[in-house]
Amino acid sequence: MKDFIKTLLASILGCFIVLGLLSLIMFVSLAAMMSFNTEEKYTLKDNTVLTIKLEGVLYDRVEEENPFLELLGYGSETKLGVENIVSSIKKAKENDKIKGIYINAGLLSASGASLKEIRDELIDFKESGKFIVTYGDTYTQGCYYLTSVSDKVILNPSGMIDIHGYAAAPTFYKGLLDKLGVEMQIFKVGTFKSAVEPFMLDKMSDANREQVASYINDMWATLTSEISESRNISVEKLNQFADSLATFKKADEMLTMGLADTLMYETGVKEYLKILVDVKDVKDLRLASVSDIGTVPFIKENKSDDNNIIAVLYAEGNITDGSGKEGITGKRYVKELEKLKDNDKVKAVVFRVNSGGGSAYASEQMWKAVSDLKEKKPVVVSMGDLAASGGYYISCNASKIIAQPNTLTGSIGIFGMFPNVEGLTKKVGLTFDVVKTNHFADFGDLTRPMREDEKAILQNYIERGYDLFLTRCSDGRGIPKDELDNIAQGRVWTGNQALKIGLVDAIGGIDMAIEEAAKLAGLDDYSLRDFPKKENFFDSFLSNKKEELATQALKEYLGTDYQYFKTLKEIKEQDFIQARMPYDIEIR
Fold first, then answer.
1. Residue 412 CB contacts under 8 Å (≥ 6 apart), including other chains
2. Does residue 433 sit within a domain?
3. 3-state secondary structure of 432
4. Over 90: is that where the pLDDT of 569 sits?
5. Residue 212's CB: how many other CB atoms inside 10 A?
């Protein structure tokens, strides 16, 4: 018995020792990671070149990498932030230690308005007289649009420049749903409200084809006209290149066509940069990344009054209910807007919207929060790639709206979808019955088709929602409701088109929005603050990351097929009343 007790006590003591050691190891590891992650200021030296690597997915704003993913060995996608890149270019322009910009063009996934934001900043940078040099193995169409402002476009001797035009290719699910025995019961208002088409048709309607052709042609006109100006190639020639699929022509033909200036392997680029910077040896050439320059303060910071703040509130992604941190969640953003309203140091707000919409209910709540904020201080909306449907709903009552020429906006319309899975349940041998106290007690039953009286009630509800949407936009924009209805109907417009019909006030980027906000608030001296506040390393480490980890695991497992899973997940989680752009419209 004594031996048993001794063994038991020894085992318990051993467990405590092991747990203590594990805790110590975790504490040391966490401390080491925090120490490693502590952002040190980059020491900027003479003969530095800002290096911008254009590879990955471009967002308006990016958070710090999740340390859990790093610990578990998951390779997350490379995320680039427009905010970070633009800031680094501004610093490079003003700092004499930075002699120029070197852009390494790669496989960049981005849309037109975000690219234009960076492109315009590069054009402004050139006023400093410093150089911009770009090298690429393969220039994607968007990447080439951005880098065409460079003083020298260098192409790998075996590389290619992709110029092929724009195409919108939605995916249609009706045939699949028919085979499964699932009927999507559709309720909508708006001739052009095409988000429901993938579930009710097997190809685009004539109205949708008309609107898509209109906005992609306008976007293409913006791209070609700006490349034409930068490269001194006529728009007609650029269209000829696209029609001949110049992408697959030999690299030396790209020189003849004027798309590139010289052919060079990447190993020779540093030698070329050495000459531009005027240093004797490549080792004297200093290449600083965007993240390096991000830690370097601005030299000239005249606008620094902390009692006069212009807040820049970033809202990017799908609009949903709830308070989570993924996308634009209604409760979270209502709180953010209320905090900015009550903060007396904040004198004006720039609301950066990049969303194709989502929940109509959440959009209405944010509209109210923006309206309350506007009563106390100016609110200027800066539109990104998308500010359509729900994205326009939350923007329409701002003091001013500024969009890029290739922003997609409008899409003022409402729809609802209810699945009827009766055909599917019959296929697997399931049947259902019901006993109820009232006529509509079983409303929303997915195992049967809707009755006509139910359909009439729901359609009336959707029409009231559309009328409310029209009212919000009419009041916000000062356009009579009947006139607005003619340009609404769910139709998508580019920023250029939206300016002509009064949906936006001006064409420009976030800098213009900040200047307008300062003007409306009567500010000459101010400081900028970004919201929502980013998580620091410690908060990120301690927060619950189950969903993010599961998402990353699925991405690793499914690869490119993850996009289909994402679509199905959004359908499952969405409110039944939606104000959003079409699903899966990919502009290539």
1. 190, 389, 392, 393, 469, 470, 473, 484, 488, 489, 490, 491
2. no
3. coil
4. no
5. 22
* C-alpha count within 13 angstroms, C-beta hemisphere, residue 62: 19
Phi-psi domain of 304 (left: phi exceeds 0; alpha: psi -120 through 50; beta: other): alpha
**Rounded-to-integer distance, Cα 583 and Cα 570, Å:** 10
Q: Which of 114, 194, 389, 399 is catalytic?
A: 389
429: left (phi over 0), alpha (psi -120 to 50) or beta: left
State yes or no: pLDDT of 305 exceeds 70. no
φ, ψ (nearest 5 deg) of residue 189? -130, 130
End-to-end Cα distance, the chain: 77
CA neighbor of 261 nearest in space, from 252, 270, 269: 252
- Asked if 133 and 126 count as a contact pair (C-beta separation under 8 A), the reply is no
* HSE of 492, CA atoms in CB hemisphere, 13 A: 33
pLDDT reported for residue 15: 54
Beta strands in 82-174, from DSSP E residues, in sequence order: 98-109, 131-139, 152-161
Say how many CA atoms lie within 13 Å of 101 toward its Cβ: 35
Strand ranges, E, within 121-234: 131-139, 152-161, 183-189
342 and 401: one domain? yes
Q: What is the pLDDT, as a whole number, of residue 588?
A: 47
> pLDDT at position 583, please?
46
Q: Does the annotation mark 193 as catalytic? A: yes
Range of the domain at 273: 48-164+245-294
Residue 38 has pLDDT above 50, yes or no: no
In the three-class reduction of DSSP (H, G, I as helix; E, B as strand; rest coil), residue 116 is classed as helix
Number of domains in the chain: 2
Q: Is the pLDDT at 297 greater than 70, yes or no?
A: yes
225 classed as catalytic: no
Rounded CA separation 80/164 (Å): 24
The active-site residue out of 91, 99, 188, 193 is 193
pLDDT at position 140 is: 94
Residue 479's CB is within 10 A of a number of other CB atoms, namely 19
Cβ atoms of 370 and 393 closer than 8 Å? no
The pair of structure tokens assigned to 12 is: 């318990």
The residue type of 190 is G
Rounded to whole angstroms, the Cα distance separating 475 from 454 reads 32
Q: Judge whether 445 lies within some domain.
A: no
Asked if 477 contacts 503 with a C-beta cutoff of 8 angstroms, the reply is: yes
CATH number at residue 60: 3.90.226.10
pLDDT 10s digits, 140-181: 999 999 999 999 999 999 999 999 999 998 899 999 999 999
CA distances from 18 to 72, 95, 243, 542 (A): 22, 54, 69, 23
